[in-house]
Amino acid sequence: MNNLGLTSPGGYLPPSSNPLSANTYVSIHAESKEHALAIGVLKMDTEEIKKKNEGTAIENFHFLNDGLWGLTVETK
């Protein structure tokens, strides 16, 4: 079994006193890294993620080295 994810040691979810609801946009960080590696939206609230501990918790929209990452904007 894989021990990677939001509820594993080193993972992070906000405390029950300050939960996030489904459809909230979030940044995803690798442990001990300063900058986000992906942006996504919660598919379930953080309390449900803790309770279920399985399934898709976040739908990713943008991640390192995807098409948007390499996009350049020309300025005049």
General description of the model:
By secondary structure, the protein is mainly beta. It has a single domain, classed as Roll (Sulfate adenylyltransferase), CATH 3.10.400.20. It is built from one helix and three strands, in the order E-E-H-E. It has one helix at 46-52, and strands spanning 25-29, 36-42, 58-63. Strands 1-2-3 form a three-stranded antiparallel beta sheet, with no helix packed on it. Strand 1 and strand 2 (36-42) form a beta hairpin. The longest helix has 7 residues, at 46-52. The protein is elongated and about 50 Å long. The N and C termini lie far apart (53 Å). The model has no long low-confidence stretch (mean pLDDT 86).
> How many structural domains can be distinguished in the coordinates?
1
Which ranges are low-confidence, i.e. pLDDT below 50, for 5 or more consecutive residues?
none
* C-alpha-based Rg, rounded: 15 Å
Helix content: under 10%
Outline the biggest β-sheet.
3 strands, antiparallel
Order of helices and strands: EEHE
- Side-by-side strand order of the widest sheet: 1-2-3
**What would CATH call the class?**
Alpha Beta
Strand content: 15-25%
Approximate shape: elongated
Total beta strands: 3
What's the number of helices?
A: 1
pLDDT averaged residue by residue: 86
> How far apart lie the N and C ends?
53 Å
Helix/strand class: mainly beta
CATH topology call: Sulfate adenylyltransferase
Task: Please tell me the CATH architecture by its name.
Answer: Roll
